Amino acid sequence: MRIRRVLAAVIATAALAGVGLAGAATATATTATATTAAPASLTPGECIDGGGTVDRANLSSAHLPTCKGGKFNGQEVD
């Protein structure tokens, strides 16, 4: 009987540890996805740092200038 209880405790501990690892992996994947998303609008400095220029002649639908070129091409600059 004692061996069965110990074995049950070991299995339960392993199962809970597996759930904890799966939860940590999900949280890490969610965080990674959130950090790679582009911001809704950029500052002029972010546009320039990304290799673009602020294009004040080409306004977005919200009447904001856009970033021209670089990795933020076409995004609004606030």
Question: How do the strands and helices of this protein lay out in sequence?
Answer:
Blueprint: H1 2-36, E1 41-42, H2 44-49, E2 53-59, E3 65-68, E4 76-77
Parallel strand pairs: 1-4
Antiparallel strand pairs: 2-3
Short key terms for the protein model shown above:
78 residues, alpha+beta, two-stranded antiparallel ribbon
Explained architecture:
The chain is α+β, with helices and mostly antiparallel strands. Helix content is 53%, strand content 19%. The chain is built from two helices and four strands; from the N terminus they run αβαβββ. The strands form two sheets. A two-stranded parallel sheet has the order 1-4. The protein is rod-shaped and about 80 Å long. The model has no long low-confidence stretch (mean pLDDT 78).
Q: What is this entry, summarized?
A:
With about 80 residues, this protein is α+β, with helices and mostly antiparallel strands. It has helices at about 1-35, 45-50, and strands spanning about 40, 55-60, 65-70, 75.
